[in-house]
């Protein structure tokens, strides 16, 4: 596995692969690599000849008082895991590489970046769009692989790619979960033992909402209530939001009539966790 912090090296390597007819997939990460990231790499390997991954803890997507400085950065472990998973090129840009002195540009996807996480974490989605566009400009992949756990990010990036006519395909992989249902997340490492036990309330609440949908419930308010009933039995779970939105526009719904995204965010101790599922009527 080739490893570099230089954009010039990434561009040159990818250009050489392309001259030999290789298809390139890209998996961007913030590091603290876990099974969810590795599942993206596995899928990328199946559908491309070469895989590029990046590790960059993006300061633009952290707000004041958030966990930028304490976000886990186990660099050696990340490199070992990504190498074993089959990454061909690991790009580890430094903050000054992507945001040199005087950097002023921001990428804002109207509407999609202003709801859900955009309300709870102002500026977060603009930071995501900005860094992903910069990464894509350097890597220029055929395929970009993202995870469903970060559904809003994935939807926002899909829209950005479409609107800016970027020549690539965005693919989503399903959320990977631990045995008890908790979605894999780098922030799971913040949880104490009891917080970790109660964190399963996020996925359990979503399963309750899905069961109601499958049984014919179409009221968004009742679906939200189904999640909250589960959470009431887990007192360490502090709700940030429980939302039922249109899966494409991310606009809140009163009633389910088409494809929807049921999304949740909650805090447990120092950790803020998100989860979701998409559902379409048969």
Topology:
Blueprint: E1 2-4, H1 7-19, E2 24-29, H2 35-47, E3 50-55, H3 75-85, E4 89-91, H4 95-98, H5 117-120, H6 124-139, E5 143-147, H7 151-163, E6 169-173, H8 193-198, H9 201-214, H10 220-231, E7 238-246, E8 260-268, E9 271-279
Parallel strand pairs: 1-4, 2-3, 2-5, 3-4, 5-6
Antiparallel strand pairs: 7-8, 8-9
Can you tell me about this structure?
- The protein is 38% helix and 20% strand.
- The protein has 10 helices and 9 strands.
- The mean pLDDT is 97.
- The strands form 2 sheets. It has a 6-stranded parallel sheet, sandwiched between helices.
- The chain has 282 residues and is of the alpha/beta class.
- α6 crosses α7.
- It folds into 2 domains: 2-173, Rossmann fold; 186-276, Pantoate-beta-alanine ligase, C-terminal domain (Pantoate--beta-alanine Ligase, Chain: A,domain 2), CATH 3.30.1300.10.
- The longest helix is centred in the middle third of the chain and has 16 residues, at 124-139.
- β5, α7 (151-163) and β6 form a beta-alpha-beta unit.
- It is globular.
How is this structure best summarized?
With 282 residues, this protein is an alpha/beta fold. The chain has helices at residues 7-19, 35-47, 75-85, 95-98, 117-120, 124-139, 151-163, 193-198, 201-214, 220-231, and strands at 2-4, 24-29, 50-55, 89-91, 143-147, 169-173, 238-246, 260-268, 271-279.
């Amino acid at each position: 596995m080739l490893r570099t912090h230089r954009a010039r090296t990434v561009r040159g390597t990818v250009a050489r692969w392309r001259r030999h007819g290789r298809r390139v997939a890209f998996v961007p990460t913030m590091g603290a690599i876990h099974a969810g990231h590795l599942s993206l790499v596995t899928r990328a390997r199946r559908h491309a000849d070469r895989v590029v991954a990046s590790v960059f803890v993006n300061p633009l997507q952290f707000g004041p008082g958030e966990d930028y400085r304490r976000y886990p950065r186990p660099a050696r472990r990340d490199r070992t895991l990504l190498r074993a998973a089959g990454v061909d090129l690991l790009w580890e840009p430094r903050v000054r590489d992507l945001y040199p002195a005087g950097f002023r540009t921001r990428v804002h996807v109207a509407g999609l970046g202003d709801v859900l996480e955009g309300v709870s974490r102002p500026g977060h989605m603009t930071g995501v769009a900005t860094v992903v566009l910069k990464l894509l400009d350097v890597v220029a992949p055929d395929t970009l692989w993202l995870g469903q756990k970060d559904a809003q990010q994935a939807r926002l990036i899909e829209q950005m790619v479409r609107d800016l006519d970027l020549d690539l395909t965005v693919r989503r992989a399903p959320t990977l979960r631990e045995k008890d249902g908790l979605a894999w997340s780098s922030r799971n490492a913040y949880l104490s033992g009891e917080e970790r036990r109660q964190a399963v309330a996020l996925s359990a609440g979503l399963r309750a909402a899905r069961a109601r949908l499958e049984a014919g419930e179409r009221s968004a308010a009742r679906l939200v209530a189904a999640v909250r009933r589960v959470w009431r039995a887990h007192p360490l779970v502090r709700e940030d939001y429980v939302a039922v939105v249109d899966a494409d526009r991310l606009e809140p719904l009163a009633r389910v009539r088409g494809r929807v995204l049921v999304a949740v965010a909650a805090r447990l101790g120092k950790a803020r966790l998100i989860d979701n599922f998409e559902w379409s009527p048969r």
